[in-house]
Amino acid sequence: MSNNFQNNEYAQRDTIMQLFTSTVGRKVLMAITGQFMVLFVIVHMLGNSSIFIPGGINAYAEHLHALPPLVWAFRLVMVCVASIHILFGIQLSLENRAANAETYAVKNLKKATLASTSMLYTGLLLLAFIIYHLLHFTIRATPDIKIGVDALGRIDVFGMVTNSFSYGIITFIYIAAMVVLFLHLSHGIQSFFQTMGWNNEKTLPVFSKIGMVAAVVLLLGYASIPFVIVTGILKG
Amino acid sequence: MSHDKTMNLTLHVWRQKGPKDPGKFEVYDAKDVSPDQSFLEMLDEVNEDLIKAGKDPIAFDHDCREGICGMCSQVINGMAHGGQDRTTVCQLHMRMFKDGDTIYIEPWRARAFPVIKDLVVDRIALDTIIQAGGYTSAHTGGIADGNAILVPKPEAEYAMDAAECIGCGACVAGCPNGSAMLFTSAKVSQLAVLPQGQAEAARRVKEMTETLQECGFGNCTNHYECQAACPKGINVKFIAKLNREYLKSLF
Predict the structure, then answer these.
(1) Residue A110: is it exposed, middle or buried by C-beta count within 10 angstroms (0-12/13-18/19+)?
(2) In percent, how much of chain B has pLDDT > 90?
């Protein structure tokens, strides 16, 4: 019997290109780009928490943007990472739908969760939120934005944020988006370890718990900011 | 146990004349079913009645009827093999049901498994994946003497756990993505830890996963539904192992 397995065709193939076409390769790309964004989301939350220190977030924002070339290089990397994650996410989801077009009359899922089965939808909702969030606090193009300066002549991020969260609808959008993020990450973080092959019988439940805890911490961490502003716990 | 009490059940069975036929559910009454009967014996009796009435009996796959051949393949109430832990349909017993129950019986559904008739699907795609590399190509001659090649106990056990797969396709039937990743990973893992299989591990994982894609199976997204569906308890740790083997194969 002669086939590819016995001759050495694979040794000559471009292995990196396989990552973009093969079933496991694309899964690995999803995992790595996803994990990049998880790290970003953790650092972003730590940055946001400077709001709890008087004058903290204005100082943080000023220092963060002090070196524009680095800011733009970082943004470029994040756009590439997010694009890979979004495009392959959609492509893989469409393929999976086609592979399982005829569904059962009776559905009885035992291990799959709301989070794991709704990754495409939570992902697209997050994309919509990210676009809104960039228009809102980064490009500052939404009508609620008032840009002022603080006593030290820095852009008053604190005032901008507290002003925005005085609108109920904006607060709702932000907290709802964080719930969606929680759903996406409660499947995504543990999934990363499985996809990278770092799992065995013992580590799988541990990573599942770590992923869930991390997702909850991120939800609480992010949602705490609009919460303390709306409830008046945090005042300027 | 109520050995003498029989039960009456309502069956909604998927009937499909052939691959092109759209198919639909037909309703049958299963009367005086003994709790000691297996699920397939219950269907045998329904078929007896259908034959007596001059109707076409329900076509379903079965062979050994002792849970080791991997032929039987029915989704019962939305669960591959009926959802009892580590049980094939032939080993599922009617004591799992109670009098008056309504039972939905469907074939494995996945693009890679076209329906041949009623509950019988074409699972040749699983063989195609094995043909792509689920073996060692070295010509080893006749059967080697036992223990001629020594394998450490943990690796031997690991390989045996993976080799428990009977190739029934329940993992595909249970997978929301119609993926055969658990099936493929069991063979990849089994051979990757054994001396004869290690040499070709890199080529094997690439060939088998590429063929999985070509056969029309979906991609694995870590739902772990396959492990719950597997009548042999094949663990998703083997999918992690396959991913590991794949990443190693890139270098």
Answers:
(1) middle
(2) 91
Q: CA A228, CA A158: separation in Å to the nearest integer?
A: 13
User: Hey, is B128 helix, strand or coil?
Assistant: helix
Q: Hey, of A2, A100, A191, A201, which one would you mutate to test binding to chain B, going by the most B CBs within 10 A of its CB?
A: A100
- Break chain A into its structural domains and give their ranges: 24-97+112-230
A111 vs B contacts (CB less than 8 Å) = 223-225, 227-228
Evaluate if residue A69 carries a pLDDT over 90: yes
- A24-97+112-230 has CATH 3.40.630.40 classification: no
* A contacts of B249 (beta carbons < 8 Å): 15
Size of interface A-B (CB pairs under 8 A): 165
Q: Which two tokens stand for residue B6?
A: 């029989």
**Is B61 in the same domain as B127?**
no
CA nearest neighbour of B81 among B239, B237, B225, B235: B225
Q: What is the pLDDT of residues B87-121, one digit of tens each?
A: 999 999 999 999 999 999 999 999 999 999 999 99
The answer to whether position B144 is within a domain reads: no
Nearest CA in chain A to B22: A102
- Distance (Å) from the C-alpha of residue A35 to the closest C-alpha of chain B? 15
In a domain, B55, yes or no: yes
Residue B1 has pLDDT above 60, yes or no: no
Among the partner-chain residues B228, B235, B249, the one whose CB lies closest to the CB of A111 is B228
What per-residue confidence (pLDDT) applies to A9? 56
Domain extent for B100: 7-117
Q: What average pLDDT does chain B have?
A: 94
Please report the pLDDT score of residue B29 as a whole number: 96
Q: Which of A104, A192, A208 to mutate to test the interface with B (most CBs of B within 10 A)?
A: A104
Neighbours of A107 (CB within 10 A): 11
The ipTM, to two decimals, is 0.91
